Every structure is written in structure tokens, then in C-alpha cells.
Amino acid sequence: MKTEMKKMIAGELYKADNEVLVNKRKSAHLLAHRFNQAETDKERKKIINELLGKIGENITINPTFRVDYGFNIEVGDNFFANFNCVFLDVCSITIGRNAMLGPGVNIVTAEHPIKPNERNSGYEFGRPITIGDNCWIGAQATIVGGVTLGDNVVVAAGAVVKSSFPDNVVVGGVPAKIIKMIEVD
Q: Which of 11, 55, 70, 79 could tie 28 with a disulfide, CB 3.0–4.6 Å?
């Protein structure tokens, strides 16, 4: 029988009020709080190594930074996240190399059933998010579960990304759509 955590990570319906998951969220929230209160880059680096599942070299995350669990987050080399980013990682969030996030970016794998009686039952689910190499996510953009962004994608500020997009495009709007192609040398 699958645990609630295994169901969560697999994107199946699960109970978020499960004691194991509640404790893992509390631990992650405490680490994130410590990260946000840390006074030096050295302290923040130590904490972020403990908080996130996998990180590359040369990463910068400005406080405040919030997560659900942290262990479902993987970022590549040369990652930058500006102030006030939120990653709700009930499923995996995988971000490639050389990615930059503007302030207030939300990356949200968590979802709830649409039917009220199912939603009120306490069950949730999630869908993973994958962001390719060399992506730039503008300020206050939101990326929701199930999205894959190819390499070199630029997401305009304030966009709500509900669909996947291929390499070398600029997307924007609510919901986001392709604005233009990027010519790569």
C-alpha cells in the first residue's frame, strides 16, 4: 500500500493532513524561515543545501523564499531567484541551468479537485513542473502544475503559464500564449 507521501510525489490524490506530510512541511517551513532570517550568504547557502533536493553550482536565492517541502525541488547551475518567490513542491519542480526568476514568481505543482465534494474531502494532488536551460521567468509570473518549458523560454512579467511551451519562445498573458519566437545563434 502506498503511503500518502508516495501518492503525493506520484501526482495521485493524497491527504495533505497526513502526520508525516504535516511534519515534513513544518520542517521545511522552519528551514525556509531560517534561510529568510540568515544574515550572510554563507548561512543561506548552508540552509538551502539542506532544504532543497538537489542544487547546482553558483546559485543565488534572495529572501523571502517559501516552499511546501523543498525536497522535491531541483535547480541547475547558475540559478537565480529574486525576492519573494514561492515554490509549492508537492510534485517535482525541476529547473535547468542558467535560469533566472524575477521577484514574486510562483511555481505551483499543488492542485485541488474541481468538484466541491471532492475538494472538501481533504484530498489534493499535484503535477510536476519542468523548466529548461537558459529560461527567464519575469516578475510576478505564475507557473502551474503539469507545465514543461523548453530551453531558452522567456516568460513575461505577470503571465500565468497553464500550458507547456517549446524551446526558444517568449510567452505572456493570462493564460500565457506565444508572443514571439527567439532566434538563437
A: 70
